[in-house]
Amino acid sequence: MWTADEIARLCYEHYGLRLPKQGKPEPNREWTLLAAMVKIQPAADQACNSPDKPAQVTKEVVSMGTGTKCIGQSKMRKSGDILNDSHAEIIARRSFQRYLLHQLHLAAALKEDSIFVPGTRRGLWKLRPDLLFVFFSSHTPCGDASIIPMLEFEDQPCCPVSRNWANNPSVKASGNLEAPEDKRKCEDPDSPVTKKMRLEPGTPDGVAHHQSFGNQESSPDPPSVSRCNLTTEELATVTGMAPSGAKVVDVYRTGAKCVPGEAGDSGKPGAAYHQVGLLRVKPGRGDRTSSMSCSDKLARWNVLGCQGALLMHFLEEPIYLSAVVIGKCPYSQEAMQRALTGRCHNISALPKGFAVQEVKIQQSGLLFEQSRCAVQVKRADGPGRLVPCGAAISWSAVPEQPLDVTANGFPQGTTKKGIQSLQASMARQECIGLHPGSNPENPRPPKQNMRT
């Protein structure tokens, strides 16, 4: 019916044609992530199909999001006037919910082109049985799905941890598994560490080669971690994800932190650095976030559906993903299956209609042109730092205001004065019980929280 490359190509073309320049990365200086929801349905004319030919389908992007940012705990607001999580996957799903709400309006108005049909219970709706939705992301979701094995012929794309660092008493006491000084050196474009990071000619897809900074004067080769350095339990977490006979020397790292109360990462050098299968929160710059990783959220959608709690009041059954497609990037099929479905198999006592789904997971061989790797290759040794784009774009297949561009959780271009005016206005409305544009004779409608 469709291939992973077809889904990726459709999303990339939609990004280039339908999304404006505003909110996109600055060429050769910024990068971003892309995610989208694709609707797949049988073609309108099936008369030409024969038993020897597969059924023809139409593919349409119904929601799309870009973004890499997530606000810290100190910037969260009870008023709900700021977006907490602006990662591309979350924005695409939020835009998808707008699309579903619009389709519900069409169904209630008895429009034939709605994706919903009446359910068996009065007042409830269900998805047309001939439709399915495929979720696309240009990169593996942050969190558990990004902890994948690295073989001995690959380069570690993040700063390695020196062998004696994990035994540092000050680190153990603080519980911080990132060495602040080393992390700062990695982020400083003028530091000796960053200057040593160069694109190797033989490195695929522009993956940066990082040299060990455990000892600046030592051999430039990164430390190799052999199997004999790992315990049986540590080996079990990574050997099952590597090709048969391949030597696992490290893992791709995720910046997502274990949630409080979980058994934390060991921080040991090499393949045992991370503990897999744990719940994690997205990383922040100094200020810890409260947003769960994209891996955890995708796993939740695979059990509870993508529609959210509000729309579920009007639906007879949840709306599940039929497949997840990932663009060209560091990838492990086993890690994706573990993160999205494997961790959920023991969930029980779900309400009627809910169940853990065996979602189809595939990878495309097509690289997103504004991904970190693609931009890194284009700019080579260009001046300045390569940084993530600060803006996020939300697009939905709805007739009214389909597009939104935000930065730092607010509409792009919002000034500090504008934010303060908005807060003051909302505080006054809270006191007198009014909604903007209303009057004392008209009650205020329920407040919608932007963070959902």
TrEMBL record:
- Substrates-to-products reaction catalysed: adenosine(37) in tRNA(Ala) + H2O + H(+) = inosine(37) in tRNA(Ala) + NH4(+)
A single Pfam family it belongs to is A_deamin
Positions the record marks as coiled coil are none
Report domain A to I editase positions.
Answer: 63-361
Mention one GO molecular function. tRNA-specific adenosine-37 deaminase activity
The protein's required cofactor(s) are namely: 1D-myo-inositol hexakisphosphate
Entry keyword Hydrolase: yes
Region annotated Disordered sits at 169-227, 433-452
Give the EC number(s) listed in the UniProt record: 3.5.4.34
Which InterPro entries is this protein grouped with? A_deamin (IPR002466)
Q: Which UniProt keywords apply?
A: Hydrolase, Metal-binding, tRNA processing, Zinc
Give the GO terms filed under biological process for this record.
tRNA processing
Stated family: Belongs to the ADAT1 family.
Role this protein plays: Specifically deaminates adenosine-37 to inosine in tRNA-Ala.
Q: How is this protein named in the record?
A: tRNA-specific adenosine deaminase 1
Which species?
Answer: Equus asinus (Donkey)
State the encoding gene: ADAT1
